[in-house]
Amino acid sequence: MAIREKYNTELKELQNKLTELGHFSIDALEKAVIALESQNVDLALKIMEEDTKANILEEEINDAAMLLIAKQQPVAIDLRRVIVAIKIATDIERIADFAVNIAKSTIRIGNEPLIKPIVHIKKMYDLNRDMLRLSIESYNEEDLDKAKRVSKMDDEVDSLYGETIKELLQINLEKPEFRSQITQLSFICRYLERSADHMTNIAEHVFYMVKGKRYDLNT
Amino acid sequence: MASVIEHISDETNRENVYKTKELNLWYGENHALKNINLDINENEVTAIIGPSGCGKSTYIKTLNRMIELIPGVKTSGEISYRGRNILDRSYKVEDLRTKVGMVFQKPNPFPKSIYENVVYGPKIHGIRDKKILDEIVEKSLKGAAIWDEVKDRLNQNAYGLSGGQQQRLCIARCLAIEPDVILMDEPTSALDPISTLKVEELVQELKQNFSIIIVTHNMQQAARISDKTAFFLSGEVIEFNLTNKIFSTPSDKRTEDYITGRFG
């Protein structure tokens, strides 16, 4: 008979929901990049439609966390685990919103041929995907090494972002007739860069959960 | 979008063990229970909370008719247990009590050995076979999650156990008669926090096989362990609902004020 088995079971359910939301968001982001690359407006529209699922999951996580606090009165690390789950859910839900933003940009670009292959954007997405997986694992396993790796990868995303924007500005000078598309592509880069910042937030939350102290990994 | 909590509903199809209809109870002139209507499901933990004097202990004591021991008590209405009205005088109280066990606030083992405490009830029911009694002792003590702690000293006096162990022994004694329902009247209020958690975990396990009704002053305990909670105030049931609902979004302002510590 384990003490506080009920708390542990309910916390596990909360963590499972969080993982589910994480998978949903990363799928959405992946679909958004595929839609952009293949200029598939239908897929982009589908991403926008499906986003309500992320919102519902986030609400479920918040409700479950609230019930856990109301019924189990967790303290110390038990309490931090629940509070951090709420915060992480907000960050992950935001990532799904970025997928929607990318989908909207894809729709705006429409069927105008892409001015260049989206190599950097895909790289940024790859990093985002790995960061989200790692950050969720770091929460579930309370693994600070994984959390640290997330913040390191954010530096890579940032430098890719810097490079790509520079490149896009250059193209803008050479082919001003594509200004609208270049603007959208810049936005998309920005969304992926912001999304990675949210993963870094998750890593910070994990540090707070484990250590009880706040760390700024975003610098 | 509606939140999950608003969608909490009682989707189980469990049977009622108790159905209370329009129960009123007076201690002399004092109207202690007023029009109580409560249906209690099997294999659930039902918590009864409320400030002192709200009638929660009175109510639980009607469920095994212990209330009759108090002079000047009058009742009206009906409490049916498994379909039969127990307030009916033809219902034999002995029959009821073999089905309904009770655990009290303070552990009350008999001044006898651990073994004798557990076999006390079965012996009254005429079981004499040593082998069967041994089995009952082991099963009951295991059921009460105390077997490992006492199996090597079954013949020692129960008074030598700690308070938390004594309370689990009392639960084992209650299990020995294989009841259907276990009533618990503030079973952990005399225990330290760790013993309290042990009893709470035990309650979670017991509900697989028994229906449990627990009176508690500790609202957090009700929140932690029960499936449904009834809030009593001045002899009335103010709110009876799923514990998730009561402790997240109670419907009645008085419930909210009580569970948030505004009064009581």
From TrEMBL, chain A:
Belongs to the PhoU family. Keywords: Cytoplasm, Phosphate transport, Transport. InterPro entries: PhoU, PhoU-like_sf, PhoU_dom. Signal peptide: none annotated. It comes from Pseudoneobacillus rhizosphaerae. The lineage of its organism: Bacteria, Bacillati, Bacillota, Bacilli, Bacillales. One of its GO terms (biological process) is phosphate ion transport. It comes from the Bacteria. Residues 18-105, 121-206 form the PhoU domain. Plays a role in the regulation of phosphate uptake. Its main location: cytoplasm. Homodimer. It is found in: Cytoplasm. Gene3D superfamilies: Phosphate transport system protein phou homolog 2, domain 2. One of its GO terms (cellular component) is cytoplasm. This is Phosphate-specific transport system accessory protein PhoU.
From TrEMBL, chain B:
It is a peripheral membrane protein. It is found in: Cell inner membrane. The keyword Nucleotide-binding applies. One of its GO terms (molecular function) is ATP hydrolysis activity. CDD domains: ABC_PstB_phosphate_transporter. One of its GO terms (cellular component) is plasma membrane. It comes from the Bacteria. The keyword Disulfide bond does not apply. Its main location: membrane. Keywords: ATP-binding, Cell membrane, Membrane, Nucleotide-binding, Phosphate transport, Translocase, Transport. GO terms for biological process: phosphate ion transmembrane transport. Gene3D superfamilies: P-loop containing nucleotide triphosphate hydrolases. Residues 12-259 form the ABC transporter domain. Pfam families: ABC_tran. Part of the ABC transporter complex PstSACB involved in phosphate import. Responsible for energy coupling to the transport system. This is Phosphate import ATP-binding protein PstB 3. It comes from Pseudoneobacillus rhizosphaerae. The lineage of its organism: Bacteria, Bacillati, Bacillota, Bacilli, Bacillales. The gene is pstB3_2.
